[in-house]
Amino acid sequence: xxxxxxxxxxxxxxxKNLLDRFDDIIxxxxxxxxxxxxxxxxxxxxxxxxxMSDVKGERQGVITIVYDHEHRGLIQTLTEIQHDFMNLIQxxxxxxxxxxxxxxxxxxxxxxxxxxxVAERLMSQKGVESVKLTTIPINR
Length: 140
Hints:
Number of helices: 4
Family: Belongs to the transcriptional regulatory CopG/NikR family.
Mean pLDDT: 89
GO molecular function, one term: nickel cation binding
Radius of gyration: 18 Å
Pfam families: NikR_C, RHH_1
Function: Transcriptional regulator.
Cofactor: Ni(2+)
CATH topology of the largest domain: Alpha-Beta Plaits
Number of domains: 2
Largest sheet: 4 strands, antiparallel
């Protein structure tokens, strides 16, 4: 491990289907243990968070969301969040991936801090599987 001097033991609870998918991935990628895969996933999450934190200024971008549309109240909550940030949102596209899963693409333009705020609010909702933010600077 690079830069890790002490190990801490933690316990986490995961839905069985999520753990099964994770086990499949770590097997394909050749990890010798779940712990190695979890450490790598956490490092990746930290890197992504730091990258998002460095986004500044006026930006244009896309927020991609995958979520369970059957999760009680989620669609209304996502709509309310988007209304809270309607000054940033230029357009959105909704697609039904399966009976239970939806993909939504939201085009945004504005201050990077506000764009990150909407992405993080969407990300924190129960029933949201993933949120990906991609932006580019408006002024070069």
